[in-house]
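Good morning,

Attaching, inline, the backbone tokens for the sequence recovery test we're adding to the shared suite. The designed sequence is right after.
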């Protein structure tokens, strides 16, 4: 677990001190997308191989849909409130 926090801290420091050039940032963006797609693929394989998950898919599907909808609505409302708060302060300054 400490390795995850160490790498996260290193990435934060690199971003905070703006140590990457524009070309490196574009490469990083592409690599993030690639690794995210690979992670989603691996999760799909794990879920597909688990017979118990497949058997419970009708029950899990409804709960997952509800959870996804609530997460999206909550995120949109939260971002809307924060953007109104911070963008209003920027306009006043």
């Amino acid at each position: 677990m400490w390795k995850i926090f160490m790498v996260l801290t290193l990435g934060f420091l690199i971003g905070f001190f703006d140590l990457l050039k524009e070309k490196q940032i574009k490469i990083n963006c592409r690599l993030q997308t690639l690794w995210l797609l690979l992670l989603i693929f691996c999760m799909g394989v794990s879920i597909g191989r688990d017979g118990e998950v497949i058997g419970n898919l009708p029950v899990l599907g409804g709960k997952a849909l509800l959870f996804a909808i609530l997460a999206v609505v909550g995120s949109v409302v939260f971002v809307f409130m924060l953007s109104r708060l911070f963008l209003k302060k920027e306009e006043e300054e």
